[in-house]
Amino acid sequence: MGSTFGHFFRISTWGESHGAAVGVVVDGCPPNLDLTEDDIQAELDRRRPGQSRVTTQRKEADTCQILSGVFEGKTLGTPILILVWNTDAKSEHYAPFQHIYRPSHADYAYDAKYGIRNWQGGGRASARETVGRVAAGAIAKKLLDTQCGTEIIGYVKQIHKLYADVDPASVTLDQVEANIVRCPDPHCAEEMIAQIDWARRQGDSLGGVVELVARNVPAGLGEPVFDKLEADLAKAIMSLPASKGFEIGSGFAGTTLTGSQHNDPYEMRDGQVHTRTNNSGGVQGGISIGEPITLRAAFKPTATINKTQETVTDTGEATTLAAKGRHDPCVLPRAVPMVEAMVALVLADHYLRQKAQCS
Amino acid sequence: MGSTFGHFFRISTWGESHGAAVGVVVDGCPPNLDLTEDDIQAELDRRRPGQSRVTTQRKEADTCQILSGVFEGKTLGTPILILVWNTDAKSEHYAPFQHIYRPSHADYAYDAKYGIRNWQGGGRASARETVGRVAAGAIAKKLLDTQCGTEIIGYVKQIHKLYADVDPASVTLDQVEANIVRCPDPHCAEEMIAQIDWARRQGDSLGGVVELVARNVPAGLGEPVFDKLEADLAKAIMSLPASKGFEIGSGFAGTTLTGSQHNDPYEMRDGQVHTRTNNSGGVQGGISIGEPITLRAAFKPTATINKTQETVTDTGEATTLAAKGRHDPCVLPRAVPMVEAMVALVLADHYLRQKAQCS
Amino acid sequence: MGSTFGHFFRISTWGESHGAAVGVVVDGCPPNLDLTEDDIQAELDRRRPGQSRVTTQRKEADTCQILSGVFEGKTLGTPILILVWNTDAKSEHYAPFQHIYRPSHADYAYDAKYGIRNWQGGGRASARETVGRVAAGAIAKKLLDTQCGTEIIGYVKQIHKLYADVDPASVTLDQVEANIVRCPDPHCAEEMIAQIDWARRQGDSLGGVVELVARNVPAGLGEPVFDKLEADLAKAIMSLPASKGFEIGSGFAGTTLTGSQHNDPYEMRDGQVHTRTNNSGGVQGGISIGEPITLRAAFKPTATINKTQETVTDTGEATTLAAKGRHDPCVLPRAVPMVEAMVALVLADHYLRQKAQCS
Amino acid sequence: MGSTFGHFFRISTWGESHGAAVGVVVDGCPPNLDLTEDDIQAELDRRRPGQSRVTTQRKEADTCQILSGVFEGKTLGTPILILVWNTDAKSEHYAPFQHIYRPSHADYAYDAKYGIRNWQGGGRASARETVGRVAAGAIAKKLLDTQCGTEIIGYVKQIHKLYADVDPASVTLDQVEANIVRCPDPHCAEEMIAQIDWARRQGDSLGGVVELVARNVPAGLGEPVFDKLEADLAKAIMSLPASKGFEIGSGFAGTTLTGSQHNDPYEMRDGQVHTRTNNSGGVQGGISIGEPITLRAAFKPTATINKTQETVTDTGEATTLAAKGRHDPCVLPRAVPMVEAMVALVLADHYLRQKAQCS
């Protein structure tokens, strides 16, 4: 009952990791937007497993089909169904774990909640579910770009204990895509790749932080007091698999400043109200003010590792789990398009909401 | 259009900081719950301005009235309206700022969005709006306590650069309420109070972190994939005024661990599945697993300070703002009941949702 | 959990018939709309009990107060709280029925659902709850009138077996308000009044039909496939107390025509597409087309009568109920502003929705 | 933005009449319900075009596939995606009408709203969209049957001026399915079939009324004051293509009774509170009371006819439309499963809602 996101630009994802297919319905996309499968495929390719040596090696082409809502290259204003068939859904990999709760996976939680689960892979808890999010996010991105010139750029800011040096004001998509780890600090990127290679060899996994900047976001987006822009962004990010933290603007670091240090003075630039600094992260009182939106998302190290772990079975017996085979040593490079998609979905939703209120 | 929160246990707050009254409608509270105004007043008193020297000195008794939904001491299952009259709404304090955008306040954002604002105080952006949240949260707390034995305990973990040492597993409400800063580490609490006194004298303000633990939360709460428990908790927290960050379990610190360090091994205790560690913060795959839920909320330093600041007027002229008079040097002590209220509202909502799915 | 209506122009009513007060929160009204308590009072006065000899004689001034959301005569875009104190809530009238299920009232239904009810009057099932609807509807009417010139005119079309002759194309508010029964056919109105007087003397009650026309409704309102305009209108009407039927355009009578008789031919008038006939009732495919919207709402005879009736107690014993005292012999005259309010709420909601989709 | 229905048992339909496929996502179906494609196919076969000589002759097998949410014959509690490929989507039939507004179709309305439409058939306004509703309704029916023993039986009560004599208390599915017109009055059914044959030969179409009874509906379903059971039923029915009216219990006819005639006296039967009569139609105060729910839905004659009609083009020129080829002379027989599906969806949604409130 929780697979729908958004109010005006509303998506419903569906599909289990090892079921027949995964996908999404997008309801509320305005009519007459140019849209083709290529627009969506481009983002899916950034999310795709097996795209490089630093990601999971599951083999999925992730080719999308649009089955409704688009006619002669334009959106109709009706629901858009996007479908991706699962092709590398080898359930035999999972047969040994059918009755074993993998630590820090959702196996036990799903059993506790539903009393049943598709043990062939992570089911809905798998990152595979994000195929639908990224596909829908591609449409949201296109809408925002077409109507507002909005740019949404995410990148890997941190992996394990390696911190990249990136200027959100100037970072470009090309810089992000210049390496397989999606870190626009080239020197740090090399170290990150080496670190991931090490983790893979160890059968271990790494966490990190994705940072994102959204530029040219119209002022006025966000609905106080509960649907504040940062609140919906936080929900969007924290709904991604493996996310453990969210911050906007100065975030946790800003708590060590005083008010006189933290407040963003207003000034006029180009005849427009601007803030001199951006500790607010582009949002004040829950509403965008036209400054770049900056946020960060923390991802824990992937739960699947190739080391022996202690755990219990679904009948309550102590056992050990010794996974063997492919694992995803670091989700961060693929998390970048996921974070971007969620931010785009929030912004598109609030953009349409705000239009309803203008006179 | 964003003043409603929750789906099953649904609240709508209303009221401006300097309007006639503030309050809340609670729709969806189950019938036959014992409830009196005292239950609500107790929490409002913890949120009340002027409760101690470390908070804002606005004088409000914040006495609540229940106008509907309760009959002979029990809830009817119908909407509960709670009203608190504003008594210390002196708009003359704000007259000088009628046309000046106060830095890092919501003045400019509201003008940009609505084209109009109640300049007599912060309007809906004021922390006064949280009266309705805390009142509704008191009902949610009572529901959870009565039906599940759930305990929700928040406390000040950090103010400015002072970090308290607190064990979430054992902290009690009495320890929290033992001092005016709501920090259960007595030594640190004294330092925090001194720090706030200093900030007040400086005309400056301080930020910090509220930490919260929720014990005896039933397993199975949370609705993947978008209404995951941590996603709704993040939205709830990030909808509070001045919040800039949210984390659950290991949070941002957990990103520097490896998977083998971070995974929580399962074990049997008292015939029940438990995790040995709790990096997950009580939630896996978006679903509560019966372990204590632990989270942290970052609050920036309050925007109102008594120092001269540069800014602009609503007609775009550079000016300086020199506020004089009472200000709130640190919102953290009063943020504790606010955070608790939001967490209680999320848990109550998901508790009712989960009941709908059980067989 | 069902006291909220609308998505963009969203209202939440609260209050029991014999509680302290009744009212509504309106969330989503656009900012900068001129609004005073007089705008709302005018509609409440049309709904008020005791306004004439053909309605219930409960004495309520129904004076409204706006407690939030309006500043210096204009809406702020924030929630609007409207409150009406109950003054004639004499619970002793109801003491004899505390344990008796009044036939075709909601007493038994509420006990079955909630296991508790406020037996002092009808609680939420009372028509008193519609105070909040009519108050909110007054705002919706003003919004539609100001921004679209929309006119919403309801009137009594039928009482018992008396059918008025009214032309929806030309009927005016003055004609409706010219008599206490709100029937713009003066001759029929007199008969209706006599019929109601007869029913009152008999201790009995009468049903009937309210017809409504909405003119100058913009084309394009309605959201296929579920939130079609007629679907939301039907829900709105059928949520009113005592309503048993809804039809739009040709309605049930249209089922006896053939397609060639029923189809509305298109033609150009004043450079605009129009239909020659209006069997569609102004809606095609769930979307307004700019023609007048015409609909009808059936209301059963009021359940409260002064005749002896067989029934059972809440412990399952057969008994008889002999109500004595004031009763409402016919709700139809007061149902007119209720129906208008609900239609206005639906149109305002869809008007704002449609704005979100325009380019 | 209106293709989602329900809150707890929530469906989103997608697909245009002449697009690649049509279908539905069902979110909120409880886990562990036995479900196969056969359960769904059985209902789709009752809705299928070409099933008999009295329906449209479009050739569609309407074979459904479940792509998610079901594992080893049981629901997972995750979204269920059902897909039906369109196979007889011959757009060339519609090429002549690409720029002509067909009277009482949604062509003009969609152009007015969206500024674009898929002219190859009715798009979302086509009855083809109801494939997803009927598929989802089959799941809702199974849930209600399994958990409550609820029986939902619809039938054709009236076609044109022919009225069937049916006792809702005793009618059976077998009686309904005994003839191709789905009228359980065998004599009237024969006349109806002859009437439809006549209409087909004339190139004309007929309207009528579907009546429905739901037995063994638990007491307590419905959420006053807006989500009353009859309000949600009305919305559900009025969202179906070609519906023009809805009534419950005594409906419009009940408006000519007095209160003393209309009230349903309570009595005890089998130790349970019952009403002696059922003018209420099983619902009082918006809440089911355990009596059979009876309702009626009016359908206008189908808009597609084979007679010459006056109309205009999308550039505002007068023209005539002379459709040739297959048309649907009467939608009533196929409307029966559609009405049943919508009622099942409403009941399932409210059944789950009510579970959330029980203690």
UniProtKB/TrEMBL annotation, chains A, B, C, D:
GO molecular function: chorismate synthase activity; FMN binding
GO BP terms: amino acid biosynthetic process; aromatic amino acid family biosynthetic process; chorismate biosynthetic process
Reactions catalysed, as given in the entry: 5-O-(1-carboxyvinyl)-3-phosphoshikimate = chorismate + phosphate
Cofactor binding notes: Reduced FMN (FMNH(2)).
Gene3D superfamilies: Chorismate synthase AroC (3.60.150.10)
One Pfam family from the record: Chorismate_synt
EC number: 4.2.3.5
Cofactors that this protein relies on: FMNH2
Keyword Nucleotide-binding belongs to the record: no
Cellular component GO terms held in the UniProt record: cytosol
CDD domains with a match to the protein in the record: Chorismate_synthase
Binding site for FMN: 124-126, 285, 300-304, 326
Record-listed NADP(+) binding positions: 47, 53
Keywords attached to this entry: Amino-acid biosynthesis, Aromatic amino acid biosynthesis, FAD, Flavoprotein, FMN, Lyase, NADP
Functional pathway: Metabolic intermediate biosynthesis; chorismate biosynthesis; chorismate from D-erythrose 4-phosphate and phosphoenolpyruvate: step 7/7
InterPro entries: Chorismate_synth (IPR000453), Chorismate_synth_AroC_sf (IPR035904), Chorismate_synthase_CS (IPR020541)
Purpose: This reaction introduces a second double bond into the aromatic ring system.
Subunit relationships: Homotetramer.
Assigned protein family: Belongs to the chorismate synthase family.
Protein name (record): Chorismate synthase
Source species: Entotheonella factor
Gene: aroC
